[in-house]
Structure formats: structure tokens, C-alpha cells
């Protein structure tokens, strides 16, 4: 349903571009949830905005690569051009609903607007569809909530409203950019369950962006781990958690708190993630890697197939906790 090939997003002048997303590729099948995980600043959100055609202008731009929705090349199309051409069945849920919802417009009007744009129906029909969408995302008293304003709803309800707006165009692909980060754990679990249920019921594909490996374990079918603007490991969720092969992935997992740690200090990945667009020779993770070798400093790492559907961008991938 979504195919991204060698996508590069750059900033700066055409003569001296600085890449903030560098040659990434991934696919999402029908009804599949792909988790895109990594630290803040690694390029996850910029990737999602590029796929949506929503890169801020003037500013970052797609300098290379190809984006296909259900087989149609939409790389160079603006969002309104995608809708006109019939390729607009992709939607996005943003991280903080209070910055995405209009505070002075009623909930029903905001959902109905999306319905009218994509379906071309009357205002009455659009409001009826808005009520159906509120019921679909499990908002209680949906008819009453149509007249509510965003500030009258809880954080979890506002995020459900954002999901309802995203579903208004009946998307084949839904991009969720850290939609549970600002929510408490109980509400987070409810939203994750809702997304999984919608994926199954609507046969919809989801690109779920997060920095939380625990969320990935609960929700994703496959995982792409991103670091420094590159995808460094891709695998089925079970294979990734059972046997991570990139040292960065292993570091992310070691940082996860566990009940059996007691008073032991949590491991951390030393150093800091590279600044977006930082240019370096060799492996982008080399300055922070505990298993770095001389060749990692001087040569770009190969992308190795380390298992069935499992790839790692590393010259010395882990196996059972040790380099090959």
C-alpha cells in the first residue's frame, strides 16, 4: 500500500544540500502496521511529512527517491493534487491534538470539513458521517460531542477526534506520529487498542512513529529502526525483540526499564545522536557504538541480510549479543 524507495530529504541551497533523511526505503503491506522507531532528531517525523507531501515551504524538500501509494507515484504531487488525481487516501494523526484541532470550531464542523473535501457531500450528510466516525472511534454520546469544543474534551478524547478526522477520507494508509506520547499509560493502551482494531476492521495499513520500544512491542507487525536519518535495521517485531542485530537497536532495548532491575542503574547509550544533516565518513553510529572497529570509522557500513526479512546496516552485526 505504501512503498518508499531511496527517499532523501534535504535542506539548504540546491548547490550544497544537507541531507536530514538519507536514502531510506521501506514497504507497508495491506493491513500491516510498520513501526518506525528511533531517538528524537533521527528523521522520523520528517519522513512522515515527506510521505504526506506536507514538508514546510520554504524549507526541507525531497531531493531524491520515490513515494508510491497503492502503486501510484505521488512523489512530486501536492496534497490537493493527490486528492484531485484520486490518490488522496492517506491520512496522518499528529502528536499533540491541541495544536492540530482548531480551538474555536466545534468538533462536528472540523470532522465534517474533512468529509466534504473528500466525499463532496452536503453539510447535513457530512455531519451524519462525522457522527458515525465518532462512534467508530468509541466516543461516548457521539451526537452530543459534535457540538463540543476541543477544550471541553479530555486528552484521550481529543486524540480520538484526530483519529476520526484522519478516517474521514477512508484512508488506505494511516500515519500516526507519536499519537500517544502526551497521554497517560491507561489512555495510551486504549488508543493503541483502538488503532489495532481499526487496522483489522478497515483493512488499513499504518505507519506508527514512536521512540518507545514498549509501544512497538504491543502494536507493530514489523519494525524499522531509524538513526541519523538512516534506517539501520528492519525486521518482524518478534525477530527484532528476540535477536536484535544492530548495536543501536540493542542499546534502545537495554534502556527500557524492567520490573526485575531492582536498584540497578539503567544502561544508557553514551554520547548524543548526530545533529540533523551532520556529515561524517563511515558508520553514523560509530561514535556511540561499544563494538566499533577501525573500518567503521572510514567506510560506509553494508546493508546485510541477517535473517528472513531481517536486515541490518552494520559491518559487524550482533548475533546472540556478540558481533558476527
Automatic annotation (TrEMBL):
InterPro entries: AAA+_ATPase (IPR003593), ABC_Ni/Peptide_Import (IPR050388), ABC_transporter-like_ATP-bd (IPR003439), ABC_transporter-like_CS (IPR017871), Oligopep_ABC_C (IPR013563), P-loop_NTPase (IPR027417). It comes from the Bacteria. Its main location: membrane. It is a peripheral membrane protein. Keywords: ATP-binding, Cell membrane, Membrane, Nucleotide-binding, Transport. It is found in: Cell inner membrane. GO terms for molecular function: ATP binding; ATP hydrolysis activity. One of its GO terms (cellular component) is plasma membrane. GO terms for biological process: peptide transport; transmembrane transport. Residues 2-253 form the ABC transporter domain. Belongs to the ABC transporter superfamily. NCBIfam families: oligo_HPY. Involved in beta-(1-->2)glucan export. Transmembrane domains (TMD) form a pore in the inner membrane and the ATP-binding domain (NBD) is responsible for energy generation. This is ABC transporter ATP-binding protein.
Amino acid at each position: 500500500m505504501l512503498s518508499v524507495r531511496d527517499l532523501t530529504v534535504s535542506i539548504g541551497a540546491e548547490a550544497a544540500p544537507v541531507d536530514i533523511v538519507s536514502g531510506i526505503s521501506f514497504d507497508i503491506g495491506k493491513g500491516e502496521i510498520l513501526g518506525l522507531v528511533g531517538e528524537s532528531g533521527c528523521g522520523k517525523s520528517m519522513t512522515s511529512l515527506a510521505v504526506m507531501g506536507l514538508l514546510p515551504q520554504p524549507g526541507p524538500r525531497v531531493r531524491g527517491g520515490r513515494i508510491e501509494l497503492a502503486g501510484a507515484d505521488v512523489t512530486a504531487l501536492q496534497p490537493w493534487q493527490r486528492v484531485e488525481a484520486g490518490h488522496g487516501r492517506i491520512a496522518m494523526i499528529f502528536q499533540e491534538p491541541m495544536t492540530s484541532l482548531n480551538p474555536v470550531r466545534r468538533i462536528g464542523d472540523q470532522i465534517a470539513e474533512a468529509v466534504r473535501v473528500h466525499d463532496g457531500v452536503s453539510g447535513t450528510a457530512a455531519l451524519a458521517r462525522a457522527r458515525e466516525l465518532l462512534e467508530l472511534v468509541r466516543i461516548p454520546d457521539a451526537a452530543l460531542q459534535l457540538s463540543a469544543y476541543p477544550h471541553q474534551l479530555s486528552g484521550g478524547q481529543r486524540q480520538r477526534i484526530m483519529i476520526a478526522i484522519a478516517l474521514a477520507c477512508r484512508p488506505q494508509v494511516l500515519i500516526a506520529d507519536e499519537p500517544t506520547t502526551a497521554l497517560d499509560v491507561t489512555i495510551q493502551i486504549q488508543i493503541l487498542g483502538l488503532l489495532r482494531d481499526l487496522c483489522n476492521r478497515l483493512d488499513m495499513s499504518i505507519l506508527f512513529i514512536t521512540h518507545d520500544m514498549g509501544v512497538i512491542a504491543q502494536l507493530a507487525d514489523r519494525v524499522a529502526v531509524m538513526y541519523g536519518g538512516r534506517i539501520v535495521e528492519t525486521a518482524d517485531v518478534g525477530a527484532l525483540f528476540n535477536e536484535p542485530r544492530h548495536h543501536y537497536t540493542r542499546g534502545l532495548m537495554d534502556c527500557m526499564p524492567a520490573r526485575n532491575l531492582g536498584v540497578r542503574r539503567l544502561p544508557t547509550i553514551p554520547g548524543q545522536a548526530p545533529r540533523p544533516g551532520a556529515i561524517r565518513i563511515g558508520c553514523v553510529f560509530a561514535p556511540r557504538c561499544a563494538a566499533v572497529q577501525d573500518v567503521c570509522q572510514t567506510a560506509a557500513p553494508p546493508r546485510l541480510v541477517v535473517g528472513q526479512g531481517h536486515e541490518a546496516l552494520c559491518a559487524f552485526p550482533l548475533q546472540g549479543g556478540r558481533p558476527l
